[in-house]
Design a protein that fits this description.
Its EC number is 2.7.11.1. The chain is α+β, with helices and mostly antiparallel strands. The chain is built from 11 helices and 19 strands.
Length: about 575
């Protein structure tokens, strides 16, 4: 199709062309009120069919439904020009897009991780709306003036039950983009699903690191017909960059596995794995931003489960308790306090202190002009109501003020010395009573064993014993017990099943396997798959030994690994 002329659109003034695709052109316009640049995507008139018109309308509806997401390009409006061509008015992202940038420069590992998590957030949000993109590639990721990615071009996106749709054609027009498409889509085995989008997203990140698509051969034949057999049969190579951590290399290889079952099961799982690499590299945590089933924006930390609504979000959210205020204590005694004791009267009472109870900044002076001491010299006390297992790395580090509960008391100020005769008689009586009471307590503590028949040196017997989990699993909604795995030999395969106490429907499983027990327990030498049912079968040649260990994943928490079980294929 040839490039078309920019149409006349009311309220918009044409500025310049931006690009051209298989079936549409994109132009830069200036909106007159309010004045701002906008991008306008216009269908080409050549070969314009009713099917293309309907697809264009669906793209507009899809992007409008998802456009509030910070990493999906926003659509302002749609319409039909005077010459009959449909158009979309979208937020303008200045060039270059990720494809242009990848050709000109190599992205840093930190930038790739951040971009991957942000795009995975957008893809996960689309999947929760029952929309698969089916054409994720660097050219379909724009970059805002502030450096944020924007996923665009939902022209061939799938909606709802995708099994009834016609398989997309592997062409440059309305179809898949071969270099980044998974094999099951290229060969018509699938119409594209969540794991297909994960594959394309991983291939996109690989290109940001290397500068070309994963199966492209520098200087070789990289036509669609040459690429398709490679994508079906050749494992994606490593990036070859020394600064790319092994964890990221493994994750990209897993996400581009030929078998969709071996890939991360969702974009959210892929994003969490990228967050784990960030944490291993001691990089800042990039938040995962998704929409829950009620349309509420949710920040998902690495340790949270998948929120399925406002209730689940409230249940799983990591809560940070607000800092508690510590009231500064003036050094000098109150003029009306006997014995040099400092007393506080109820607020609003006669003669109530006029100093503010808020803590003063370091170096500030109290009303008397004396510097204010901190209320405690120990480290800040963590709030006792904060949930166990909360990960403070998800939030900015906040140095909390010490809690007034259990705070270490200040040394008493030097009392004002007064004459003993000036003290009221009642105080002498109170002091004598305290001395008698202290003596009685000391006597009871030091007396030998009495009628109770207990040895004085024997420790007291507790009335109840509280057992805490002794394993290394996560605390909270996680799984404390490691699963019990059974291996069985089959014809050309080895099957594994497992069970564990108190299973839940939301549980998923990670099975790592290899030819020896040490391989299965070593993440560098094992192969890991994620499954949703407590069973998995590994295909193996006759006489081949397969060993596996299983972990249970719940709400982002991982159980201890099971004992390694091995069996030999028949």
């Amino acid at each position: 199709m040839k490039k078309g002329a920019p149409p006349k659109i009311p309220g918009l003034v044409f500025v310049q062309p931006l690009g051209s695709g298989g079936y549409a052109d994109v132009f830069l316009y200036e909106q007159q009120s309010p004045r701002m640049p906008v991008a306008v995507k216009v269908l080409k008139s050549d070969g314009l069919t009713d099917a293309l018109r309907q697809q264009f309308v669906e793209e507009a509806d899809t992007m409008a439904a998802l456009g509030d997401h910070p990493y999906i390009v926003q659509v302002f409006r749609s319409g039909t020009s005077d010459d009959g061509r449909p158009y979309l008015v979208m937020k303008y992202y200045p060039p270059p897009n990720l494809a242009m940038r990848a050709r000109a420069e190599r992205f840093s590992v930190e930038d790739v991780l951040r971009t991957g998590i942000q795009l995975a957030s957008a893809v996960e949000t689309a999947h929760r709306a029952h929309i698969t993109h089916r054409d994720i590639k660097p050219a379909n990721v724009l970059v805002s003036a502030y450096g944020a990615p924007g996923l665009t071009d939902f022209g061939i996106a799938g909606r709802g039950a995708r099994e009834g749709d016609a398989p997309p054609e592997a062409t440059d027009d309305v179809g898949v983009s071969v270099p980044w498409a998974p094999p099951e889509v290229l060969y018509g085995q699938s119409n594209g699903d969540e794991r297909s989008d994960v594959y394309s997203l991983a291939a996109t990140l690989w290109q940001l690191l290397v500068g070309r698509s994963p199966l492209e051969v520098p200087g070789g034949d990289n036509s669609a017909y040459a690429l398709m057999p490679r994508i079906r049969s050749t494992a994606p190579p490593a990036t070859g960059r020394q600064d790319v951590p092994p964890g990221l290399e493994r994750l990209l290889a897993q996400a581009m596995a030929k078998d969709p079952a071996h890939r991360p099961s969702s974009a959210l799982e892929f994003a969490r794995a990228l967050q784990a690499v960030e944490q291993q590299q001691r990089l800042g945590r990039t938040p995962i931003v998704v929409l829950d089933d009620e349309g509420h924006t949710t920040l998902v930390s690495q340790t949270q489960g998948s929120p399925t609504g406002r209730a689940a979000d409230d249940e799983d959210r990591t809560r940070i308790k607000a800092p508690q205020t510590v009231v500064a204590q003036p050094l000098g005694p109150s003029p009306t306090a006997p014995d040099g004791e400092t007393r506080r009267r109820p607020d609003g009472g006669a003669g109530a202190p006029r100093w503010s109870p808020a803590p003063l900044p370091g170096g500030a002076l109290a009303a008397s002009g004396a510097p204010v001491r901190p209320a405690a010299t120990t480290d800040p006390v963590t709030s006792q109501t904060a949930p166990l297992g909360s990960d403070s790395s998800d939030e900015a580090t906040v140095r909390r003020a010490a809690s007034t509960v259990g705070a270490q008391a200040l040394p008493a100020p030097e009392p004002v010395r007064t004459s003993p005769l000036s003290r009221p008689p009642v105080l002498w009586g109170l002091a004598a009573g305290v001395v008698v009471l202290v003596g009685l307590v000391v006597f009871l503590l030091l007396r030998p064993a009495g009628d109770g028949g207990q040895d004085a040196a024997a420790p007291p017997t507790p009335s109840a014993t509280v057992s805490m989990p002794g394993d290394d699993s996560a605390i909270g909604d996680g799984v404390f017990d490691k699963p019990s795995v059974t291996a069985r030999s089959g014809a050309g395969s080895v099957g594994f099943t497992w069970n564990y106490p108190q299973p839940q429907k939301k549980d998923t499983f990670r099975l790592s396997y290899g030819p020896t027990p040490s391989d299965a327990g070593n993440p560098d030498r094992s192969r890991t798959v994620s499954v949703t049912t407590p069973t998995y079968t590994v295909k193996a040649a006759k006489g081949m030994k397969v060993c596996a260990t299983v972990r249970v994943s719940r709400s982002g928490q991982i159980s201890p690994g099971s004992d390694v079980q091995c069996e030999t294929a028949q």
